[in-house]
Amino acid sequence: MKRFIQNIKNIWKVEELRKRIILTLSLILIYRIGSFIxxxxxxxxxxxxxxxxxxxxxxxxxxLSMFSGGGFTNVSIMALxxxxxxxxxxxxxxxxMAVPAVQKMQNEGESGRKQINTYTRILTILIxxxxxxxxxxxxxxxxxGALPAEQTSLWWVTSVSVMVAGSMFAVWxxxxxxxxxxxxxxxxxxxxxxxxRLPSSFLSEVASxxxxxxxxxxxxxxxxVLGTILIVQGVRKVPLNTAKRVVGARAVDDQGARNYLPLxxxxxxxxxxxxxxxxxxxxxxxxxKSQADGGMIQYALGDPHGVWxxxxxxxxIIVFTYFYTAIMxxxxxxxxxxxxxGGFIPGVRPGEETAGYIDxxxxxxxxxxxxxxxxxxxxxxxxxxxxxxxxxxxxxxxxSLLIMVGVVLDTLQQIESYLLNRHMDGLxxxxxxxxxxxxxxxxxxx
Length: 446
What we know:
Blueprint: H1 2-13, H2 15-34, H3 44-52, H4 59-67, H5 83-98, H6 100-106, H7 110-138, H8 153-180, H9 185-195, H10 198-207, H11 211-233, E1 235-239, E2 241-242, E3 245-247, E4 250-252, E5 260-264, H12 271-287, H13 291-301, H14 307-328, H15 331-340, E6 343-344, H16 352-385, H17 398-421
Antiparallel strand pairs: 1-5, 2-6, 3-4
Helix pairs in contact: 2-8, 2-9, 5-6, 5-7, 6-7, 7-8, 8-9, 9-17, 11-17, 12-13, 12-14, 14-16, 15-16, 16-17
């Protein structure tokens, strides 16, 4: 405890870090306030009555509300949250594989990154313009008495415009946090939305469960978080040798500085779960109005705690993990960069043989990573089977847990870098999970 208090004092002593943290917290507060401001003309009493009957929410509604910080179920100006921007970013990444023009922009450095960001924002606006009227039609109108009795064309234009502006304002807040604050702004906004539901869910669980079981649930939750941290930070270190370079009249050996190529066990992150859950909801949405044609599909896929739902979800996650890892990791490019920088893997020839070796390693370590993601995705269902309810079971795994762990670790790493640059003890000094990389890991260029 004494060391923790000293770390807080060290953070407060660094002026730049202090200003960044205060700015980050201020912008997050603005985002949280915006998630409670309702659309013009919406009946607040009807929305509150629906919120009090939260047990009637579907799983999809609960997930979307979690990612939007409650803005989705509040029918707020930020009901769409930051997710349209995430969707646009994913689309641009996929286009980078298939469209040569996007690939060219990705290889143009800073100027190409700015162009991609511009196209991503434009695509975000288009996605918002489609999602906003869909949200009003399918969700907001399903709340009795929430929308005005007379919905004029002006009201529709105003509501859609406000929702688009609210989502873009959330994107702007995220970018300001990234540039002027601490951590990845977009990820932080999603994490704050998830964490905002944790206190109420936990208190609801405590009120309906015996103290001994609550303690056991906390212990299990901490073990799951620990396992998630180990997998998220787990890497396969590939030994490297670096050729000597000539400086002046003498040769300098760089071998001691960088002699590892880290390959992450979970290179795909949380994206396979997001893809799999999105695909699982499509059949349910298509057949939701047709019980005759979609009765079996509704029965099999409509229950997120059912056996068939979780089996199919796990299979899709394993498939998407391999797919997204192939997008994120390019063995041929890594082999070319190694060859260009004078590095090579001992016992493996540079070029094609190195690319094949890296590809085989990635394929082998992707299997345990995909199995872990599948297990994490079905953990909420297992927790529900163990009678952990009241929304608290969603924090035992799935997308929410991976996002929380990843964002918290990334933010702590950035804070630690500020402290270490000023010769202060890091936040994770002496712990088994280090926030900074080992000095002999080759990280640049990949």
